[in-house]
Amino acid sequence: MDFSGRLIDRYKASFDSIEIQLSEGTSKTVDIRDGEVEDVTVNSSSGLRVRVFKEGRTLYYTSGGVNEERLNAFLSEAQEVIRLTPQDEKVYIPSSPQVYKDITELAEPDIETLKNFALLTESGAKGFDKRVKSVKSASCSYINQKTLITGTHIARKLWNKQMISSFCQCLAEENGDIQEGYEGDTVYLDKHFEPSLIGRRAAETATSLLGGKPLKTGKYNILFDSGTAAQFFELISEMCDAENVLKKMSLFAGKLGKTVASDILNITDDPFHGDAIGSFRFDDEGTEARETHLVTKGKLESYLHNGYTSALMNAENTANAVRTGSGKIGVGTSNLVVEPTEDVSAVALIKGDVVKVLDVMGLHMADTVSGDFSLGISGVVLRSGEAVSSFRESVLTGNLKDLLCAAKAVYSNTRIHGNIVTGDVLFDAMIVSGS
Q: Which region, left, alpha or beta, applies to residue 291 given φ > 0 means left and ψ of -120 to 50 means alpha?
């Protein structure tokens, strides 16, 4: 990675700015099936992404490897080619003079350790309930990703992330009915990791759905479990993406400062969270991280910005630049944190039946412009907080605007789903179509 500085010095007079990101990663995965190793995968990868700027023009370069000769050839050719690209006076190049280095060097788990973790995942599922007949997949992975960002306007920044993850997919069977459950978790290497719990949670979902029948069509209080809620809030984060707002692809376009949700909702983009895996000190433009309050008491406070979108919208840069596979800069969340409002024990006090959604299909297809959605849902029916039956082949239809305003509680059983932190979420009565 050291050659980047040499090439920047060589070509900096030819451009207004040069920005270089280099990445190197190693990973290894062990897959288990019926107590035996099914597969072992060891990978290494590297990547190079470059942006050069001159007189409001931008040129991108991306490579699947880190190679000084190819980067030198690009920078040489770019001096002429950049003149062919469109000019944009709003091109904004964030400056970051702070030098930063944070390389963790924790002892990485060996293959035998990953194997044992995967076995614990599998046994956690099989030991949960005799109705769990098979574990289709049980795996454990380790990854170490190193990133360097530097440039004419960015002081050298170097860091890495060491993470471990496990995944389980299992099948439960009773009276000819077969249901599937799956669960995964990723944590930093120095954090608490409990692979057997991942297996148990997958098995709990599968067994909970056994014997399910379509709900009787009607209005129900809807409770998204934390995993389903995480998918929902991921969709909401896309609606806070300034690029989507500018393209009129978001319900939140033109809604800044206005009420967009129930007053119990407080949603924050938090890059400093100690456990969620989206944490960072600098975004992919080298801009120093900051906490951003997106929704406070139901009011939309901010969009998520990179340098360019902040210039276009005359807004403060929230340091949410992310690099796409093509090397271009987009917008993305760090960690999306949803503040709890009630103790989870309050679920038992809800009058009437509560439909707890454990699995949802079609949420990613919800229309973020009109807000309309139609979701296939399955889960359990709660009465006084206890599961009394299971259901499947039911459909929840509505509009995202109404769903946001129908939020009644975010419960304290907070879990981390990758970079989304939320508990179960209760919504006011909505129509579910079934039998």
A: beta
> pLDDT tens-digit profile of 246-278?
999 999 999 999 999 999 999 999 999 999 999
Sign of CA dihedral 245, 250, 254, 255: negative
228 plus 114 within the same structural domain: no
- Distance CA(142)–CA(161), nearest Å, equals 11
Same domain assignment for residues 219 and 153: no
Greatest CA separation for the chain: 74
| Structural domain boundaries, residue 312 | 212-435
Domain boundary among 206, 221, 244: 206
Residue 118's CATH number: 3.30.2290.10
Cα–Cα distances in angstroms (integers) from residue 264 to residues 173, 259, 273, in the given order: 40, 11, 21
Asked whether residue 202 falls in the same domain as residue 217, the answer is no
The answer to whether the CB of 130 falls within 8 A of the CB of 46 is: no
CA dist., res. 65 & res. 24, Å (int) = 9
Same-domain check for residues 40 and 158: yes
Identity at 21, one-letter amino acid code: Q
Q: How many domains is the chain built from?
A: 2
The owner of tokens 């439909």 is: 355
11, 113: one domain:
yes
- Contact between residue 418 and residue 187 where contact means Cβ atoms under 8 Å apart: no
Q: Does residue 2 have a pLDDT over 80?
A: no
348 CB-near residues (< 8 Å, 6+ apart):
384, 385, 386
**DSSP string of 50-90?**
EEEEETTEEEEEEESS--HHHHHHHHHHHHHHGGGSPB-TT
Task: Read off the pLDDT of residues 169-192 as tens digits, 9 standing for 90 and up.
Answer: 999 999 999 999 999 999 999 999
Residue 385: band (very low, low, confident or very high) from pLDDT cuts 50, 70, 90: very high
